[in-house]
Amino acid sequence: MRPDTSAENVDHNAEAARLERTAGLYPEDAEHLLLQAAAHLELAGDRPAATALYDRLLSSTDPLEHPHLIRALKASNLWEYGHEAEARAIIDGVRAASPRDPAPWVIVAESLESHDELEAAQETFTQGATLLLTDVPEPPYSTHPLLYGRHRVRRMLGVPHDHWDTLADTLHSSPVSLDELHDPKRVWSLGSDNPAELAAEISRLRAELGTFREALSRPFPVAVLHWPSAELTELLAAYPALTSEYPTHDQHLATIEASLQELATSGTPNLGIVTGTVPSYEAFAASEASSPSDTTLLPQYATTLAARGRAVAWPPQRGAACWCGSGRVYGECHGS
Predict the structure, then answer these.
(1) Which of the residues 69, 137, 144, 247 has the least number of beta carbons within 10 Å of its own beta carbon?
(2) Annotated domain spans of the chain
């Protein structure tokens, strides 16, 4: 569903069914598509069916890209229809697993927050921030919701600001400050008879909505195409004309890192890497009625993979494995 499509104009059950059918046609994208389908089922109010999709993914024999995210979503969904004990157990498991992706932290913390577990929500937000942001010079864009959520919960608890709250204020670009947006007294102003107070609250709500829309409508990552060694060997054996683009695999990897470093230095946000496979590239070329030997297809293929949710954020989080697949920590590999 597009961010500018209102929920009431969408048949969520039909959209979920369409996404499930598409997942059957494109098994390499099944995880991303089934997560979208589960979201539509939650919006349709069919939470048991959404849980069934989460269980289907978690029981799959295929490796998952985001297992902790799926568990976090399942926990949040379960709690919403009365399975509190199971949801709490899953949330405890997600926290114990210490995922390097901020999204699971945000989801489980917000689930706790929505059920008035503010102290536990603050602890969860703080645990995620400590893991992902300690000694990080510049918080990645994906971690901003972690800081904003932590700021919101601490504001509701009435605790003094700390250095991460100050950082959240600095990162927040809306003309209305986070302190105003997260003020617990705002709810009182919604019942006010004073036109000036109501107008001020409307202004704050518009600013908050603008922030959400910006997050929803941000462009796909500027994605650079990565070929694993075996895939590149197969690609060049089938299409020798691409040798000019990829002289050696080591040079290919070095070019990726250099390109991303250059983009980051120029201020380009939201960078990512997509991994290609020969069969999917050939299928893409066929869909474009073109030859895989055409080098102009390569950036288009990368963009298409990113649009299908295949991009992995660059640079990797501190302590995470390098994007190249060497198994070494990024800081000791291409990030050295």
Answers:
(1) 137
(2) 222-332
